[in-house]
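Protocol step 4 of 6: structure prediction from sequence.
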Amino acid sequence: MEALDETVWAVNPVNDSLIRLANYMMHFAQDFFQNTGIHCELDIPTNLPDLSLSAEYRFNLFLVVKESLHNVLKHSKANNVFLEMRTSPGQLHLTIADDGEGFVTGSVSRESGLANLKTRVAGLSGKIDITSVPGQGTSIHITSPLYQTAAEQSK
């Protein structure tokens, strides 16, 4: 049911803005870590640009966040997770970081588990940087282009 709700949310044209995506991700993250013992800190500005995003873009970006948060809960043994969203002209910057146990980058089992994230980010024409240090946590930084619709460009 949860997956169906997420899909319905993503394809609903009423939710086609960056602002609505940010709000949805904030609520999801807060609910996801409720009663888990992991403190979730959010840093998402209230003055995000009013940009329309395609259903595919919203859905893929949401799944990147969801999978990243799931990895924190399942694997990190973290006390805290931090989700930050920023924009610069034409770009979205997203960071998900935890203070968990981290892992050795290049480890086959861990890297293969992150392959889906890399594929989704590539589908957004974005870039992903995963940094992890044993005993110091993991940070995932995503940069993805934000495209204006033709209607917004003519404003």
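Step 5 (inspection) to follow. The chain has one domain: 2-153.
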